[in-house]
Amino acid sequence: MVCVPVVKATARDTVTNVTWSSVGIMKLSVREDEVRQVVVSNKSGIMLQICCFKLPGNECAEHKQVRLGLQVRQNVEQDVPGNSEIAKFLMFIELVPGKGEHLLDFRGPAVHGPAGDRFIYLSWGERGCETWAMFARAKLKVTGPLNLLAPQALSLQLPVIAEVEMTNARGGPVCGSFKSDVVRWSV
Predict the structure, then answer these.
(1) Residue 141: beta bridge partners?
(2) Which is it for strands 45-53 and 160-165: parallel, antiparallel or unpaired?
(3) Which residues contact 40 (CB under 8 A, 6 or more apart)?
(4) Rounded CA gap, 70 and 137, in Å?
(5) Which stretches of the chain are DSSP H helices?
(6) pLDDT of the chain along its 187 residues, tens only?
(7) Rounded to whole angstroms, how far apart are CA atoms 73 and 129?
């Protein structure tokens, strides 16, 4: 058996106000073979929504038109100005049976990295004349959290939500890998 956390929130879209509701956690037992069977038989997938807040602004060093976007394969899509109050990136994640310690593996145009170490890139750059000039990016690791939350999201037909602050301690754009304790995951 696999224990899957079940997250219950008092409000559905609290991140738009940049306030957090109280979250209760309870355990739901799911048989590992049941999850794999659902994934294999249904060509299943989930929606992942990344909610970014506290963006650093439009200027960073020599960059004057800073934008944040989702890297999809080699391109950046859904980009928003760096002074946006909030940025939401929505993507479909295909679920496939995992190997070893991971119950599931994840695929999709916005999913990067090898099996067992999947991640999503949020890219900082400037857009001009249909080109994207990236100067930094942040890596959101998804293998661990999605293995815990995907079965619940699939059964409830709800998205998995990751909430992250995008301004670092110096007031600039967050770059590199997010530490697990700064990402709030929920269904």
Answers:
(1) 119
(2) parallel
(3) 97
(4) 10
(5) 32-42, 143-156
(6) 333 333 333 333 332 222 223 233 333 344 455 555 545 445 689 999 999 999 999 998 899 999 999 999 999 999 999 999 999 999 999 999 888 888 899 999 999 999 999 999 999 999 887 789 999 999 999 999 999 999 899 889 899 999 999 999 999 999 999 998 899 999 9
(7) 20
Mapped onto helix, strand or coil, the DSSP state of residue 41 is helix
The domain containing residue 143 runs over which residues? 2-186
Query: For the chain, how many structural domains are there in total?
Result: 1
| Residue of 52, 59, 16 whose CA lies nearest to 184 | 52
- Which residue type is seen at 138? A
- 76: which 2 tokens? 């950046």
